Amino acid sequence: MSADGVSRRDFLAAAAALPAAATLPGPGTRSGPDLRPSTPLRQATCRWPYAGLSLPDLCQVARGAGLTGIDLLHPDEWPVVRDLGLSVVTGNSTRRRTFLTDGLCDPAMQATVLGELEAAIPLAAAAGVPQVIALTGNRRGRSDAQGIEASAAALRRIAPLAEERGVTVVVEMLNSLVDHPDHFADRTAIGVAIVEAVGSPRVRLLYDVYHMQVMEGNVIATLRRHLPLIAHVHTAGVPGRHELDGRQELHYPAIAAALAAAGYGGWVAHEFVPTRDALPGLREAVAAFQAA
What we know:
By secondary structure, the chain is an alpha/beta fold. The protein is built from 10 helices and 9 strands. It has a 9-stranded parallel β-sheet with strand order 3-2-1-9-8-7-6-5-4. Helix 4 (110-127) packs parallel to helix 5. The termini are far apart.
């Protein structure tokens, strides 16, 4: 049983009923570029790598590349994107400068983090934004068990509001090796343990392929195992966090094919830092996922 009395079986069944939940094909299941999803994978780009573009200009570029959404937006940005015909994929709950480092695993920060989520979730529900992001913050000497329990305890408090409003809180894992030293949730196993301890289908994972390739690799097998707990996917090239092109080590068409074959219903949001004009790189990313 999870800490709030919800069994793992019940939680997985509820999570599997949500649109993003699916099971990736097993080792004996045929997969590849000849398998087409029943509906195309929904693709977006994250806002922050394009700080040099105005939001309306980014929307224009995104539409030109074949994307249908913008990810990681503040509430005041949501109407801009909607008015330009794109979907708002994930809402930010705060502009706090310490959002990445001070988070759920620190009991001293939980009142702040929960207050941000309590304000953001109703706004997202009213605007039709399907999910908001949450982070654990830095470890600062905590053991895995301490950080998991602290993070889960906080999320158990926000889960009823998320369930009531129909908004999913997505907990992202970040790498601690290159970009975010000391980040607590730096492995899939930690994120899974947190979400399972919460036991709510409205508290799930944001699986960032870039971050988890840096930390542990084994991307497709990990997605296959844990997809019922994953509501959202981010991409970027490894190493460097740049375009999804031939300079990086991941074969994104294979990852896309695995998601497509599973009938994955969540969004794929590209979060790479561009090294050239935005449009060609985003078109490459879209093509990698359309090949599935």
